[in-house]
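User: My instructor asked us to take a sequence, write out its structure as tokens, and then describe one feature of it. I'm not sure where to start. Here is the sequence I was given:
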Amino acid sequence: MSEDAQGRSDPIHPPDTAERSVVVCGTAGGVGTSVVSALLAEYRAATSLGGASWWVDAAGNDGDLHQRLRATGDEALLRTASGTGLLPAPDAAVTDVVLHTWRFGAVPVVDAGSRPLTVLSELESPELRDVTPVLVVGPRPDLLNRAREIFTEWDQAGVLERTVVVVCCQVPTLNHQALTQMLIDVVSGSVAGVIGFDYEPVLGGGTALDREAQRGFAPGSWNAFRDLAELTSGRRA
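Assistant: Let's start with the prediction itself. The structure tokens for your sequence are:
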């Protein structure tokens, strides 16, 4: 970042690409935030961005996604077989992480963990006005009720209207369709989009998520990631 004659730093802008940077938050722990964010970055690497697609682990937890994705190479920036760069940043602010990736011409998907109220002030800032927020919700009545405050706070801050909501089903026997439709009915017109992820046995196994494992995904899972990629692209209407 260069400085002008007054000693001020020039603003850092996102790379000139149709894909928008993304910050993913879970409304609670264990709803699938890390997996959804990492696989969105993988999908973008495989379909549009190549090595410019980075997944940034800023959740602040001990995660194993780099192992499940079979990433290799430099520990400072591992790479998956699809080309996704994996950047660990457990102690960094989300804004700092996003600006850091932009310096390298990368388009990040940031896993912000289950800190939607903490991250909200950063998503309101001018630096992140071109970033698409994603909220991951579990399709259980208790989780949806606990998410009410989050939706209210994000709506009052003016962030909800540019947010994509992902309803991620992680229990094979749970019939989430009715709850997903209820959520869609409630937030329709207030958010940028709502996507439902059916239970995916490969994800439910809790093991490898590399390119070979991804070949076993159900068609519906690929359709959901395609829809999520489209909703986080500047090409959409």
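For the description part of your assignment, you could build on this observation: Residues 1-8 have pLDDT under 50 and may be disordered. Try explaining in your own words what that tells you about the chain.
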